[in-house]
Design goal:
This protein has a domain of 173 residues: Vaccinia Virus protein VP39 (Rossmann fold, 3-Layer(aba) Sandwich), CATH 3.40.50. It contains nine helices and eight strands. The longest helix has 15 residues.
């Protein structure tokens, strides 16, 4: 971590996840949809997996893996959120994974790594934790996610106070994700784009969903003072409405990579989408 920019306040991330653990069921359908698409990538391989590490699955991914006969160790920065994964739960920081090398056949991370300051370092640790020819599957929000909300908040705050502080997390691009897999030493890296559209009749529900998922602002240089009372109503009122519905898009990079192994048995088994 030496020399790594601290973009995110990791203590705030943990606190947000602690709070969200009691209300994450509110957003379970969205998390499950993303998780099913991610875990479905395993249908493209004949490789069988016995033991998996589920990073930040919020109690959604572990049951999907269990349905495939895979034992999952669920790890999360939040003790309360980790416990949602079942009996094999570990409170662990993904930036400092506490597992021996070559421990797992499979590592999954469903919408859970975008708050890491040292994402390249996390991916290296994931690759190290995998057994040779082990599989890494991750979904990661990328540029395009929540763009209308980001713009509306910035414009509303500028109009109210003459300036704007960051209120939506910065996201990488699809090309960034491909480069990260290669840099971390994964074999046969594949990155493709997927989208989930989120429609709201009540604009405030979008903010409630972000809170329930543990996705509230944890940018280190965020504004700590209470925002102007008119900020969120003004921003939400500015969001584009079609047929009385506001649509926000979750744009995801779907990452697939294999731990190197001579010969690479994963070759030809994980299809590019």
């Amino acid at each position: 971590m030496a020399g790594v920019p601290e973009i995110f306040d990791r203590l705030a991330v943990r606190r947000h996840r602690d709070r969200a653990a009691r209300m994450v069921e509110r957003v379970a359908p969205v998390l499950r949809e993303a998780a099913e698409r991610l875990v479905g990538r395993m249908d493209d391989t004949t490789r069988r997996f016995a033991l998996a590490l589920d990073l930040g699955g919020r109690g959604i991914v572990a049951p999907l893996l269990a349905a495939r006969g895979i034992t999952a160790v669920s790890a999360d920065l939040s003790t309360r959120m980790a416990a949602r994964g079942g009996a094999l739960a570990v409170a662990a920081d993904e930036e400092w994974l506490p597992f021996r090398a070559a421990s797992f056949d499979l590592v999954t991370a469903n919408l859970s790594l975008h708050w890491a300051n040292d994402l390249p370092g996390v991916l290296v640790q994931v690759r190290t934790a995998l057994k040779p020819d082990g599989l890494f599957l991750a979904s990661l929000p990328v540029l395009g996610t929540l763009d209308p909300l980001r713009t509306a908040l910035a414009e509303a705050e500028a109009a109210l106070s003459g300036g704007a502080s960051p209120r939506v997390s910065p996201f990488p691009t699809l090309r960034d994700c491909a480069g990260l897999l290669q840099r971390a030493g994964f074999a046969l890296p594949v990155v493709d784009l997927d989208r989930i559209s989120l429609a709201y009749r009540e604009p405030l529900a979008a903010l409630h969903d972000l809170r329930a998922a543990g996705e509230t602002n944890a940018i280190r240089v965020r504004e700590r003072r209470t925002p102007p009372r008119a900020l969120f109503p003004a921003a939400l009122a500015a969001l584009p409405v079609e047929e009385r519905t506001i649509t926000l898009e979750l744009t995801m990079a779907m990452l697939t990579g294999w731990a190197p192994s001579p010969p690479q048995h994963g070759s030809g088994r994980a299809a590019a989408h």
